[in-house]
């Protein structure tokens, strides 16, 4: 039986309070205690923008994994993990947009952080956001005292792997080294599995980890779901880069082609890339079925949203 997804209305009804919780927590936490000259670009990079897909995946996976016998600390752990992964995502965008990498001037419909605050300000803001992500998940001030230490450690490890050399940073290194080269499908898949997919997969795995120990079947199913939807997100991004305008995207459209970067559209054509996104969606939903978890409707609905999005 195929994984059942909520309708768009049901998804919106679930997302609304979840996003409100995430936004309130980010508003409270981001840049707290930092010098004003650092807190301002940190908050500029995170607040008032973004789809918050990664936090939603954390919260939806925590819901699925904790649907039976959820521990009392599940909500706190999941909220901290959701905000932590969003700070890692935000820091990566700050650094990716800088002149030494993608040299972009528009992000989330406003000037990029280095344009607004200078390159040094952007570099430091990214560094601080990366560090704060881990501080939120495993704070020293005792505010997450109810979350078992082994769960905090697991969350830190999953986030570090998704963001580091075997994840997002490694994928970005391959991306920068591949400009002007034609990659085969296996090479392109590996680059995007790391650059974009690893952090999305980590979001799902972190949500599941918030519920404590799961069966191997459930863990493998959620991991496979995260991998498929992470890659689907990048395929759709490649499609939107050539089909949407900058105002809709909130970032510079057509920049991948202009920079001669390898993309799924360049490799498979527009129709082929769209078909690949649909194939990955089916793969993700099959993985949810294989997990054996009962309450996966939110994850299934988010997967549909990822593939159907227009920005």
Give a written overview of the molecule.
This protein has 311 residues and is mainly alpha-helical. It has a single domain, classed as Farnesyl Diphosphate Synthase. Helices cover 70% and strands 1% of the residues. It has 14 helices and two strands. The protein has a two-stranded antiparallel ribbon. α9 packs across α10. The longest helix has 28 residues. The mean pLDDT is 92.
Helical coverage, percent range: over 70%
CATH architecture verdict: Orthogonal Bundle
Q: Count of helical segments?
A: 14
Instruction: Tell me what portion of residues adopts beta-strand conformation.
Output: under 5%
Q: What is the CATH domain class?
A: Mainly Alpha
- C-alpha termini separation: 31 Å
What name goes with the CATH superfamily? Farnesyl Diphosphate Synthase
Instruction: State mean pLDDT (0 to 100 scale).
Output: 92
Structural class: mainly alpha
Question: Which helices and strands occur, and which strands form pairs?
Answer:
Elements: H1 8-29, H2 36-46, H3 53-65, H4 74-96, E1 106-107, E2 110-111, H5 113-117, H6 119-137, H7 149-163, H8 168-177, H9 185-209, H10 216-243, H11 246-249, H12 255-258, H13 264-291, H14 297-308
Antiparallel strand pairs: 1-2
Helix pairs in contact: 1-4, 2-6, 3-4, 3-9, 3-14, 4-6, 4-7, 4-9, 7-9, 8-9, 9-10, 10-13, 10-14, 13-14
Q: Which terms would index this structure?
A:
Farnesyl Diphosphate Synthase, magnesium, metal ion binding, single chain, globular, metal-binding, transferase, two-stranded antiparallel sheet, mainly alpha, prenyltransferase activity, 14 helices, 311 residues
């Amino acid at each position: 039986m195929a994984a059942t997804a909520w309708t768009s209305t049901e998804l919106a009804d679930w997302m609304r309070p979840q996003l409100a919780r995430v936004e309130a927590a980010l508003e409270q936490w981001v840049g707290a205690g930092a010098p004003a000259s650092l807190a301002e670009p940190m908050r500029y990079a995170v607040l008032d923008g973004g789809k918050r897909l990664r936090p939603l995946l954390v919260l939806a996976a925590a819901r699925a994994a904790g649907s039976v016998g959820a521990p009392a600390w599940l909500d706190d752990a999941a909220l901290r993990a959701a905000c932590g992964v969003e700070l890692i995502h935000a820091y990566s965008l700050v650094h990716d947009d800088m002149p030494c990498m993608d040299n972009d001037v528009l992000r989330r419909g406003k000037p990029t952080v280095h344009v607004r605050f200078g390159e040094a300000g952007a570099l430091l803001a990214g560094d601080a956001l990366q560090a704060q992500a881990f501080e939120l998940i495993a704070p020293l001030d005792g505010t997450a005292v109810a979350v078992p230490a082994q769960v905090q450690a697991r969350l830190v490890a999953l986030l570090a792997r998704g963001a580091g050399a075997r994840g997002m940073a490694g994928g970005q290194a391959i991306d920068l080294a591949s400009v002007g080269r034609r990659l085969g499908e296996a090479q392109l898949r590996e680059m995007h599995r790391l650059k974009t997919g690893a952090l999305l997969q980590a979001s799902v795995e972190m949500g599941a980890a918030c519920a404590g120990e799961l069966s191997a079947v459930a863990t493998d199913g959620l991991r496979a779901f995260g991998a498929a939807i992470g890659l689907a997100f990048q395929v759709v991004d490649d499609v939107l880069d050539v089909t949407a305008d900058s105002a809709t995207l909130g970032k510079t459209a057509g920049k991948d082609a202009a920079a001669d970067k390898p993309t799924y559209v360049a490799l498979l054509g527009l129709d082929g890339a769209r078909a690949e996104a649909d194939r990955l969606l089916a793969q993700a939903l099959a993985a949810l079925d294989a997990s054996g978890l009962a309450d996966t409707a939110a994850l299934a609905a988010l997967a549909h949203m990822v593939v159907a999005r227009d920005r």
